[in-house]
């Protein structure tokens, strides 16, 4: 079976063609992070990359805002997600006083 996006990337010379293949939402210290794993069809050297957003309140509305992580490039979606998770801030643990 032909992958529609792979076929499109080959036939139409698009600069970039991606599909979101996995999404994870992680909440740490009250902050929600959404990581998307993207499969790249337009660059054979890039298999799976990630993007990240953080949930913020702006003018009384809850929105997702870009949250830059270091570059990820892995051979499968789970490895890309694991790499992206390693770039999130470490959880702050409450200490007893």
Question: Any overview of this molecule?
Answer:
It is a single chain. The chain has 97 residues and is an alpha+beta fold. It has one domain (4-87). 21% of the residues lie in helices and 39% in strands. It has 2 helices and 4 strands; from the N terminus they run H-E-E-E-E-H. It has helices at residues 4-12, 77-87; strands at 18-28, 31-40, 48-58, 61-66. A 4-stranded antiparallel sheet has the order 1-2-3-4. The longest helix has 11 residues, at 77-87. The mean pLDDT is 87.
* Share of β-strand residues: 35-45%
Return the string of H and E elements: HEEEEH
Indicate the structural class.
Answer: alpha+beta
Number of helices, counting only DSSP H or I runs of 4 residues or more: 2
Helix content: 10-25%
Structural Rg: 17 Å
Oligomeric state of the chains present here: single chain
| Number of beta-strand segments | 4
Distance between the termini: 61 Å
Q: What's the number of structural domains?
A: 1
Q: Mean of the pLDDT scores?
A: 87
Strand order of the largest sheet: 1-2-3-4
Low-confidence stretches: none
Q: Could you say which overall geometry the principal axes of the C-alpha atoms support?
A: globular
Major beta sheet summary: 4 strands, antiparallel
